[in-house]
Amino acid sequence: MNTDASETSGSFIQNFLTRFMGMGNDVGNPKLSTHVAPFLHYAFTRSDLPVVLPRYQALIDEFAMYVIARERSEVGATRGLIVSFAGPSYCVSGDLAPALLNRNDPVDKAVIDFFSEDTTFILRAGKNREKRRRLRESLGLMQATMSARPRRSWSVAKPLGRLIAQFDAELAAGGEASSLHVLQEIQARGGMTPTNLAHLQIKRLDRLGLSAQLLEMEDLPNVLHQNPPIPVGEAVLNAVRSAVLEESLSVGDLEAAYERLRTLDLPLPVKVDAHRLGPQALTVLLTAALGRGDDDYLGVLLHKLDEQRQAELIPATLLDAARKRAPSAAEATDEPHPAESSAVEASLRGSINSWMGLFMAVAKEGTDPSAVLTDSIWREWPPPADSDNEVAELLTDLTDQEWDRCWRLTGPFIEADEYTHVAPRSTREFINYALSGNRLAVGDLNAVYALTESYLRSSPSANEYRQLLDELRDTSPQWVSIDNSRIVLDFVDRLILVPCPDESARLNLAIALLEPLSRRSTRLDPATLAFSKQLAKELGVPLQWAPTESTSPSTAEVQINGKGEVILLYSLDNQVLMRVAETLEKLAPGIKVLMSSDKISTTSLKQKAQHATRVVLATRCATHAATGAITARTRAKIAFADGSGSASLLRAAVNVLAD
Amino acid sequence: MTPLERTVRTGKNLGLRAENIVGTALIGELLDPGKTLWVVSGWISDVKVIDNSQGAFDSILGDDPPNVCRLSHMLALVAATGTKVCVATRPNPHNTTFLDHISEAIRNENRLRIIRDPNMHEKTLCGNGWIMTGSMNFTKSGMGNNEESVTYRTGDPSVAQAHIDFRARWKETE
Questions:
Q1: Mean pLDDT to the nearest integer, A225-243
Q2: Domains, chain B, ranges and CATH?
Q3: CB-CB: which of B157, B168, B172 is closest to A226?
Q4: Does A117 contact chain B (CB < 8 Å)?
Q5: How far is Cα of residue A516 from the mean position of the Cα atoms in its chain?
Q6: Is the minimum CB–CB distance between A226 and chain B shorter than 8 Å?
Q7: Mean pLDDT across A312-334
């Protein structure tokens, strides 16, 4: 890291500042010079700090603070700083991901020319002058604090395996924004091939149901040319089902469906091992086989559908046409088998065929679980709930090193639960390790919440309930903060939603979680503050909260009420849906709230998606069949919750309503 | 597509020259163009790639077919089909002539991207479903007298991987 003042005050930064402060930026006004000067000083003298600069456009009265990470590897750390000092308390947008810079804008172009396209955060505080002042001052404080710290490297790279595990866990736990942050961190860190990075992107877009976005990926044809793992191919086929075939198949027009498939300029994997594919992908394969008259493969597909009892999930017209064409499906068993990636992977697949076997191999033999995870073979196994006692006994005796490897399996373990197959003992072991092994960083908390939710769903005894809550309370100083208020409130709300066999343990944990928020409640946004107060009241926690800023309606209320907004809330957790619907209706009585927890694409889900003017999705354990149907059907603005609890869904809902 | 691979060793002693291989590959690209054509080489000259002195390629070399077709001319013809030509090379004076020629030949800035990377050492030409890679720079010596090894592959996943890798490697520059 270079901290040589002579270099930082050199022509590079001078030229950059001349451009940044020039055309398109009106902060050159002498009245503003005292506010601007400290930021210029840091930009000139400290190359170890992010460049932080104000921008004001007088014509449209728009104020923004640009925070530029000097290296891509520093983006993650810079985001952390922004969140700690400014967002979301003082930012209405821009605090979560680097901005998409506009090459035609002179100020943005200056940043692109001197730094990079994807390392700049553009923070906005809205039109309120007081909020703008607070944003500017908080970033000034950030620079002052950072410049006073000991000089040391602050971009310590996390091991790649840990980041991938975190990504899987975030996706499984429904952390939409968090999974994007981890993906960006992996990208910035390096060490992963661009093809594998593309696989992660595809996996994420599939989970969120963003079919059109997935099919528009520039690298997609090249990814498909490389014989990707089955889940990647399936994700692409799922997207084709939602974004390309939905319209034709919904009216039974098979010719049009095939024509759309034929003219799609993508090397789709239309003749693959259908054994592990879901009904969405199988629908695409059936359409393709029918269109090209491949009777043998049609027979194979129909046989698989009957064998896996998925036939009722295929559009009736398509299924009938396929059965007429290939009536002898019952005997068809010969299907193409994809080439194994390697002998090692093939042998690994053969030797590991249960959760117990997987944990044993990863923990005791140090087996790299990548092959199993990449191909999602675990989806074919009975859920961990079926072997809960054996798995839990194995997990109880693991050393820290063995746990470190097994933590990589958190994401699939959470997903295998599917809100129905809880494995309480094994889940408790995961929580034990998270709490004792300090897996309490921002990137881990969504997973810990999902595990806690699963465990509490299993109706633990009073003693088990008390023990868990006490352990959470003991670790709470490590993770409860204003920055994490969303996930903290998810935990608090869960205490209300589940049966309570020990009132005092619940109260103690509630106080430990809510008290730090109440102390700094001036930093909470109005909706979060209102929800915190509501939770405290319901739990009987007597805390002092900041008064509401004014008696006038909140931004959301002003923008929503009377406009006939219809918001669709989607989550597989019915309790969360009810809770958020109730809170939203109180917050803004003028809106209509629709809810859905359908696991697959149903008529009801599609109708709700069509009627909604805003959609909010919590994607924990959700399938593309449902999320894809929503995103394909709706013209509404869509938001994703960054977690699976009530506070996460509520925050996303308020943001999308106020947008 | 069935993957095919062939390795050719060129050089004065073997009597094999690389320019014919490059020229043939680029004719293939011209007839079946892709979205992007990558020319990656630390040193590039505007070498002759097709001998058209007999007029054998008149029908595909444009309205005014040259006797000798140089690399920049061939790349411009490919770009005219809608392909984006991406040239990655070192910021070295040796490359200036070629870069001037190609900038002159491809005026549409959406069809030409020039990347100057002082750290690059790879030598690859990668088009629609094919890749040519090896030890040879696209210079007079590299394609003429030097003893080099060049591997040409079609229909292989390595082609798609090269496209993704190059795009990721030079994503944000220029």
A1: 92
A2: 4-169 (3.30.870.10)
A3: B157
A4: yes
A5: 26
A6: yes
A7: 78
Task: Encode A197-264 in three state secondary structure.
Answer: HHHHHHHHHHHHCCHHHHHCCCCHHHHHHCCCCHHHHHHHHHHHHHHHHHHHHHCCCHHHHHHHHHCC
Spatial separation of the C-alpha atoms in residues B47 and B18, rounded to whole Å: 11
Mutate to test the interface with B, among A222, A224, A265 (most CBs of B within 10 A): A222
- Shortest CA gap A127–chain B (Å): 33
A480: tokens are 């409860």
Sign of CA pseudo-dihedral A368, A161, B160, B16: negative
B168 contacts on A by Cβ (under 8 Å):
194, 197
Report yes or no: A653 and A639 within 8 Å, Cβ to Cβ: yes
Which of B2, B36, B164 best probes binding to A when mutated, by most A CB atoms within 10 angstroms?
B164
Which structure tokens are listed for A406?
């097994």
Q: Does B173 touch chain A (CB under 8 A)?
A: no
Domains of chain A (ranges; CATH) run 2-148 (no CATH), 159-177+355-456 (no CATH), 193-327 (no CATH), 459-541 (no CATH), 566-658 (3.40.50.2300)
- Top mean pLDDT of A108-122, A585-599, B26-40, B114-128 is at B26-40
Q: Residue B25 CA to chain centroid, in angstroms?
A: 8
How do strand B130-134 and strand A120-124 relate by DSSP bridges? Answer: unpaired
| Per-residue model confidence (pLDDT) at position A163 | 87
Pairing mode, if any, of strands B124-126 and B36-40?
Answer: antiparallel
Establish if B168 touches chain A: CB-CB under 8 angstroms.
Answer: yes
Please give the pLDDT value at position A590: 82
The answer to whether B70 touches B46, Cβ cutoff 8 Å, is: yes
Residue whose pair of structure tokens reads 């039974």 in the numeric block: A252
The answer for residues whose C-beta is within 8 angstroms of residue A450's C-beta and 6 or more apart is A172, A173, A174, A414, A620, A644
Question: Which chain A residues have a beta carbon less than 8 Å from that of B157?
Answer: 225-227
Q: Which residues contact A68 (CB under 8 A, 6 or more apart)?
A: A50, A51, A52, A53, A111, A115, A119, A120, A121
| Helix segments in A21-93, DSSP class H | 33-45, 75-85
Residue A270 identity (one-letter amino acid): V
Find the angle CA(A594)-CA(A611)-CA(A251) to the nearest 5 degrees: 120
> Which residues from chain B sit within 8 angstroms of residue A117, using beta carbons?
172
Report CA A15 to chain centroid distance, whole Å: 39
Name every residue whose Cβ is closer than 8 Å to that of residue A553 and which is 6 or more positions away in sequence: A561
A581 vs A587, which has greater pLDDT? A581
Q: Are A185 and A76 in contact (CB under 8 A)?
A: yes
At residue A172, does pLDDT exceed 50? yes
Inter-chain contact B157–A227, Cβ cutoff 8 Å? yes
Over residues A100-141, the pLDDT tens digits come to: 888 889 999 899 888 877 889 999 888 888 888 889 999 999
Q: Is A250 exposed, middle or buried (0-12, 13-18, 19+ CB in 10 A)?
A: middle
pLDDT at B34: 93
Q: Residues A553-582: pLDDT tens digits?
A: 555 455 555 467 899 999 999 999 999 999
The structure's pTM equals: 0.75
